[in-house]
Model the fold of this input.
Amino acid sequence: MDRLVQYALGLALVVMQLVNLRVGLNGRPAVVSLFLLGFGAVSVLTLPWLLRPGLRTRSGNLVLGSFLVLLGWALWSSLNTPLPRVLKPWVDVSRPYLVVPVVTAIATTASAWGLMAAVSPARRPVLLWRASMLLAATTLLAGPRTMLANHSLRLGTGMGGAAIYHVVLLLAGAVLLRSALRDEHRRWSLAGVAVCLLGILMTGSRAGLLSLLVFLGLLGVAFAMRGRIKLVLALSGALVALLVALMAVFPVARRLVQPNEQFRAANYETAWRTWQASGHNTWLGVGSGRMWPWYFYESGASPVPWRGVIQTGYGRSLTNPHSLYLGVLAELGLVGAALLLVLVGAVVWQLVVAWRTMLRTAPGAPAAEALASLATLVVPLALFATLVAFAVDHYLFKNFAISFWWWLVLAATWGLRGPVRQDQSASVEVSA
Done:
């Protein structure tokens, strides 16, 4: 089964990197996308493994359970909320454009967990390393191809455009860095890390840069605490030099330090005003997909308006919330926000657990042991850093290819139980 999952996952990642899966079976815009068909089939096929008792960790059960309840609440809301109206001139968005994206998000989440559940615990780290190397390699192929097609110097692939692809690269780079610190395929791993790092900067995404700085900043603190201060300073200087060089050679990279949030500000203002308008809106939200009927545009039912600005009955906003937290709060209310907070809290807690594990290593420990202790911290830290990106784009509910990879990494790292080792506590032995 391990080999079958490896080949299937590798093929899926390559296809997602090179092909637009937002279309239907005929290759044209459709309500039911290839994402839903593919992830739906995988989730059904792997369901027996996912439902196997005792497979998930306590944190894994908490995260998966709370998020599926959140998606269930979103599904019920999308089936019952009044239909949104958008200015095209005024037209009603039909029900499938509210329901189908939620169903696709459920299939995306279940398929990622199911695939990892079907892999034997000892093979998950190997599978994750190979998948990360494959993503780094296909970025070198799919990135330039997408840049040429879009007539842009910003890096993106079929998995996601330049504004969001950095999440894939950050997680893949963290997996590869963990292997390098453990002295596993060190040269190949470091080469992959370099590709991912350069790729994040080449996306020109401000959220990507901020997530990267959070990741590297906290990792630098950890390295300094392990007595690697000179290495931290040298790498920090190299990163700053690389960023300056990119901005000098590629003018588009200068947007990294030039914030322009005019339209997002209007989006936040409309959402905030609507959320406070009534007790129903505050506690239960306005309804899934009602304020931001983004799938109406992404499915090809309507052209995306200029700069993504639309007019609805609530006022001027963007086609999507551009923030997971804002979208859940405004459309699903405090009830939805509380369920999402469980996921956020679990990601933060796993970082705390990994940090404590790292601190258990004596300061004067041999270099190999010290680096191995740092390796346990890297991927939980990257998952934590992506929470920053969640503030500026609507992951997990859309951006299905990237959401699939995020769930895959989380499940393989600490969501599912790993091989039991006698020298570790239960909270740590689940880490890949």
